[in-house]
Structure to design on (726 residues):
């Protein structure tokens, strides 16, 4: 249970504030001395280039001129600084060098609290707070005894009943302070909200104020100031680049159909960009990369403390003279101090920036003037921070596309301005592309879908994102698209088509054996299957429909193909797509037939007892009887021997039982005249048992010979047959 003592904390705060005001201030050095010891500082090195990636990082490049020896400072937040230290690259392009890179460090709160003598943690309870005051002189007011001055001995919790009734079982925890007054009397005072406890030691008040000040720093992120020392002569160009965490940029598209029916539509692409890094992007060169290079965070800006072993101090140890082996002679490696290298083009970096893309390929796109009239919202709406107007969206050469590694990027040729804590919609595409309206149906979906078949004839890869469809000046639906590369055709569904119903009207199937191969007991039957599915599509709408039916392929079995002259409009690894024209208020059928093999595998070498399968195989392929019949006969011999061995073992069990019984009777009648009869029976039983065992051994030898014969016949099997050889 935690207990807050506001009066106590207020008293501490007021007291420490007064103490702080009385502390002497350090004299400031003269301005001339500061000018001599440190070069002038350029606070802001502007951002000139921004490259945003899909994995939540951005590549930033600052550029500006420096003169002589100058210090350049860039501000980051603490989360940013980790990425910056991991990827920072600094280039002095005028023959200068970078003497060093410094930044203000922060010690973890737990380590800072260790410097205080209070011994409290980051989240103290009231018990821990008063425990830190044990032994200190305090003044207590608001209690029943008036003002009491003394030393705090302890704080304890007591569990008491909360009600006056004897049957009331509820309890409550109350806290009591034990105080040794100045007079020597020991007082126990209940800790209530009216009670005020004020330390009388000014040093202790300072410790408490410092403790509260450290706790307050955890609520503010603060800025980290990174300073670079550029050493050189004359005016030079300085470039600083790094990566930093930033929101993922998003793609969104508009597909606008003209009022007159046609085979193309205006495809307009936008990128939604958010600037949350705390610095304005004024006239920056913006590139958007649709790729996710590997990136991670390491707390490089956080001071790390490691646990060291504590070794006890040895006492009362007497040593005696010892001798030690001589070390082997090794080469002496000199150690040199690490210092910044003075090179014409100094680079202070922890990781390389994004590699430069190959030369860009420009492409021409139509301008946006007049596009937004009459095509509903989204044909050219607001643009976030107000950088672009609808008529400014795209013109000749506004966007170029680069491809490198497995990524592709949109590079805007015109500078972009996005202020900090603002977002913008940046146009990346506007072009007429071939688009066809279709109705898409799959057996996996209950209802057909309205879709467009988009043919990407542009030179841009369309990144994954959302899209909206506008038909006849009205919103028609929206959906999602995966990346579409140049020259690729893709189906995009956006609404349900309630006027079309599609169902499976019939299924047929035929199977016949087309090939048989037997090699050393391995039997492979090849069956040729012809499977047919009939689809029925009904169009109740007033307009003709192009229905695209998705039919699953036999992707798991090789050799399957379409039967007859039927051809698919499009094939995917798992689907055929068939085009079916269905006029208004009519129905059409489509039969899809596929032909392909299925295989049956039986290995007689692993399981030779397959006589029933072999008999059925001869019925299917009579030509194989001459090869297979000896194997069937050999299996029949083995079966007969197994039956004889089983019969003899039953006889053996009976003879053994008789022999055991006669022996027991003979033992019981030992010395009696009746024992002679059991001697004769025992002899006959033993003779029968020995004869049976000899016969079983002979049968086992015959079985071994028959088994060897069977495997010889199986290994000698060689037969190949096909239906064309009939």
């Amino acid at each position: 249970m935690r207990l807050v003592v506001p009066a106590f904390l207020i008293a501490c705060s007021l007291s420490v504030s007064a103490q702080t005001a009385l502390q002497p201030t350090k004299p400031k050095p003269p301005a001339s001395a500061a000018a001599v010891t440190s070069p002038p500082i350029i606070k802001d090195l502007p951002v000139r280039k921004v490259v945003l990636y899909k994995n939540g990082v951005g590549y930033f490049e600052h550029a500006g001129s420096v003169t002589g020896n100058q210090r350049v400072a860039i501000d980051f937040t603490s989360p940013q600084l980790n990425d910056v230290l991991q990827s920072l690259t600094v280039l002095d392009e005028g023959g200068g060098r970078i003497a060093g890179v410094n930044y203000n460090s922060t010690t973890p709160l737990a380590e800072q609290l260790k410097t205080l003598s209070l011994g409290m943690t980051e989240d103290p309870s009231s018990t821990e707070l008063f425990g830190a005051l044990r032994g200190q002189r305090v003044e207590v007011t608001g209690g029943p005894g008036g003002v009491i001055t003394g030393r705090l001995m302890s704080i304890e919790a007591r569990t008491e009943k909360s009600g006056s009734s004897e049957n009331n079982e509820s309890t409550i925890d109350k806290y009591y302070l034990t105080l040794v007054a100045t007079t020597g009397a020991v007082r126990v005072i209940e800790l209530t909200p009216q009670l005020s406890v004020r330390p009388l030691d000014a040093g202790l008040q300072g410790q408490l104020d410092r403790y509260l000040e450290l706790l307050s720093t955890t609520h503010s992120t603060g800025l980290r100031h990174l300073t670079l020392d550029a050493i050189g002569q004359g005016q030079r160009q300085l470039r600083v680049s790094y990566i930093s965490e930033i929101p993922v940029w998003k793609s969104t598209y508009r597909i606008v159909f003209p009022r007159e029916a046609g085979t193309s539509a205006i495809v307009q692409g936008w990128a939604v960009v958010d600037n949350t890094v705390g610095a304005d992007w004024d006239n920056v060169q913006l590139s958007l990369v649709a790729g996710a290079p590997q990136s991670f965070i390491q707390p490089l800006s956080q001071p790390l403390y490691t646990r060291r072993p504590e070794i006890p101090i040895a006492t009362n140890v007497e040593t005696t003279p010892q001798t030690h082996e001589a070390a082997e002679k090794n080469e002496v490696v000199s150690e040199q101090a690490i210092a910044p290298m003075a090179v014409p083009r100094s680079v202070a970096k922890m990781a390389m920036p994004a590699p430069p893309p190959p030369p860009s390929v420009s492409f021409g796109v139509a301008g946006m003037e007049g596009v937004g009239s009459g095509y509903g919202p989204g044909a050219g709406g607001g643009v976030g921070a107000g950088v672009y107007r609808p008529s400014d969206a795209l013109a000749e050469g506004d966007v170029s596309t680069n491809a490198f590694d497995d990524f592709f990027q949109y590079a805007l040729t015109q500078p972009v301005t996005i202020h900090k804590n603002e977002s913008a919609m940046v146009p990346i595409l506007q072009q007429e592309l071939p688009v066809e309206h279709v109705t898409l149906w799959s057996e996996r979906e209950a209802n057909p879908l309205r879709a467009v078949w988009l043919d990407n004839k542009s030179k841009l890869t369309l990144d994954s994102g959302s899209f909206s469809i506008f038909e006849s000046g009205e919103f028609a639906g929206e959906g999602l698209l995966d990346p579409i590369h140049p020259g690729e055709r893709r189906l995009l569904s956006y609404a349900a088509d309630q006027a079309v119903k599609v169902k499976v009207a019939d299924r047929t199937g035929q199977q016949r054996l087309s090939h048989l191969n037997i090699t050393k007991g391995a039997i492979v039957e090849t069956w040729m299957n012809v499977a047919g599915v009939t689809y029925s599509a009904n169009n109740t709408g007033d307009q003709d429909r192009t229905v695209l039916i998705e039919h699953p392929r036999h992707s798991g079995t090789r050799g399957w193909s379409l039967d007859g002259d039927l051809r698919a409009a499009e094939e995917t690894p798992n689907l055929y797509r068939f085009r079916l024209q269905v006029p208004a208020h009519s129905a059409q059928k489509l039969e899809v037939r596929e032909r392909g093999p299925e295989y049956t595998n039986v290995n007689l070498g692993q399981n030779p007892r397959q006589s029933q399968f072999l008999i059925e195989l001869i019925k299917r392929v009579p030509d194989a009887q001459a090869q297979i019949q000896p194997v069937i006969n050999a299996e029949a011999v083995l079966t007969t021997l197994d039956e004889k061995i089983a019969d003899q073992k039953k006889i053996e069990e009976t003879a053994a039982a008789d022999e055991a019984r006669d022996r027991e009777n003979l033992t019981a009648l030992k010395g009696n005249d009746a024992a002679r009869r059991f001697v004769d029976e025992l002899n006959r039983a033993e003779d029968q048992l020995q004869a049976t065992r000899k016969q079983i051994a002979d049968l086992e030898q015959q079985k071994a010979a028959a088994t060897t014969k069977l495997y010889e016949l199986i290994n000698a099997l060689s037969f190949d047959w096909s239906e064309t050889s009939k």
